[in-house]
Specification:
Chain lengths: 337, 337
């Protein structure tokens, strides 16, 4: 099963871990836009894909339909800007499990990404480094003795490493402690952002935490720093949950009402699902609701997103139709044995 | 089964019909308050109850516990003021089916009430008149040759007759036509009021229509007038429903969401039940929702009211506990085979 349908360590709070390495090839200009160079670079990677191994397969974005591309965006495997560019630029290397996805000609020539469910920086980083070493054995990276890896945007120079953990923090939000916790954390060299954009921060309990600096600090220290801070947040979220469950009738009622709406509605938007599901997930993690499982929660999150819904059903639908189909899929998933 | 758990003619819109006759005995003062006269009158009726027949049994209010009295109020069998008076005044004659309930020493010496489910003025009035004649064969009513029956309050003098029909008008409210319809109707000598008080009018889709005048008009004309006006309202409510069902996805979604909340909540107030249930009833009447039946809707309306909930469970509960028990009872009723 794909990593994003699995539960991992601490996955009551930590949904997933991502490692990203920004790499560029010395023989090409940075951030290339001319078709010829783009093609040359992408063909080069394509030819190497067999040698790199890991079951990686090469796809050009221009050969993929929009729904397939958006389904990758919804899984956080590729960036929206990358998926939506209309210049016939960009390819990916991806394996069947989808825990490795390398973007080619995004902002950098290569963005090596490795994903895992739950909170697992160490193994994820190790796999990314292993993969990086393997790729480096076939290609010359653009490097500086002074700075390390060179990148298209200066914020990534150095290690080119971004460690991200996706966190579900409903109890900190419900107890109004989230701002306090997040404010405290930004002093420790991390970025934290609501996962559905800055503006809709309040509509979601999902937050992504990642390192700010990539330069003048070792990969190990970056990883350690994120690890420690994440552990602190997890601890605080769990404390908030303990507080909520003390007087759990309100919470139980809310969990089951949301469940009742999800199971019975006849049409529903993806943002409403996300909102209702957050409390249902909290209830599932706290053992409040028998009717749900971790797998069902993960499936509901994934397959109610617009593109993945259509992937799941194997058909394309207009928006209102999608809202109706979404309600059907939710009922189906909830009723699975 | 009791009349209030049955469906009658036109009961998609007309919930119930009530006939009330105000009568007073010539040998007593009106609206008596002194204990001696009160007792004398009530003992007299008690002794007669066997002769009157109809399976009527006599109960003094002071011998009934508060929950039992409130459960009768919630069924609209007795008035709240009558139930709540603390002067040890008042008795009732009631049969097992509870379609006959005579209040003794309410505003008048006797308030003969007959109820039926659905829209059935004719039979209900006939039974009330039959009963009235029977009672009159044992007692002398206070009457005037000029006016007819004399009553404690001048608004009831004459026939002493009040014909009431309880109507469920969710579609007229949803389509914002209710005010227009109700305004038009008040010109035809009828009172119409939201059934949960004037102030909370907007929180309920239940309306009671009844005649204004009791004097200078025959019983038959009063009945005919209410019948014609009720038929008009029923017609308009049904037209509004046809309009709603045309684009029925919104309605179906709302019906099922409300059903989902009712079935899954862990605590709920009686007013929220009433609100959610109104649309579920509409869905049931329109054949939109398979999971419900008329009987279940009627049971849910009745047994979620505070006193009847406690009657149903045979226990007394504090308010918060009641909200929890109410949620359990709702689930039970919905799941009945």
């Amino acid at each position: 099963m794909n990593w994003y349908l699995q539960s991992g360590k601490d996955s009551d709070v930590a949904i997933s871990t991502r490692i990203r390495l920004a790499r560029n090839l010395s023989e090409f200009k940075f951030n290339i836009k001319d078709k010829e160079s783009v093609n040359k670079l992408e063909e080069k990677i394509k030819e190497l894909s067999w040698n790199i191994g890991y079951g990686l397969k090469f796809f050009k974005l221009k050969d993929m339909d929009d729904i397939t591309k958006m389904s990758l965006v919804e899984k956080n495997l590729i960036s929206p800007e990358f998926a939506l560019n209309r210049n016939e630029i960009g390819s990916i290397l991806i394996n069947d499990d989808e825990n490795i996805c390398i973007m080619i000609n995004e902002e950098d020539h290569l963005r090596i990404q490795v994903f895992s469910s739950g909170f697992d920086i160490e193994n994820t980083l190790n796999l990314a480094k292993e993969l990086d070493t393997k790729i480096q054995s076939f290609l010359n990276y653009a490097m500086s003795n002074d700075y390390g890896y060179l990148t298209s945007c200066p914020t990534n120079v150095g290690t080119g490493l971004r460690v991200s953990v996706m966190l579900h923090l409903p109890a900190l939000r419900k107890t109004k402690n989230i701002e306090k916790v997040l404010d405290a954390i930004t002093n420790f060299g991390v970025n934290i952002r609501g996962i559905y954009g800055e503006n809709s921060k309040s509509s979601s309990d999902m937050f992504q935490i990642s390192n700010k600096k990539t330069l003048g600090i070792s990969e190990e220290d970056i990883a350690k720093n994120i690890k420690i801070i994440t552990e602190k947040i997890i601890e605080q979220e769990r404390a908030a949950r303990k507080f909520l469950i003390k007087d759990n009738l309100d919470l139980e009622d809310k969990v089951y009402r949301n469940f009742g709406i999800l199971k019975n509605c006849r049409k529903i938007s993806s943002s409403e699902v996300r909102e209702l599901l957050s409390t249902v997930k909290l209830g599932t993690d706290l053992g409040i609701i028998d009717e749900m499982t971790d797998l069902k929660v993960l499936k509901l999150y994934l397959y109610t997103k617009p593109a993945n819904l259509q992937k799941y059903l194997g058909e394309q639908y207009e928006e209102l139709e999608r809202d109706v189909k979404r309600a059907e899929v939710i009922k189906q998933i909830i009723n699975e044995k």
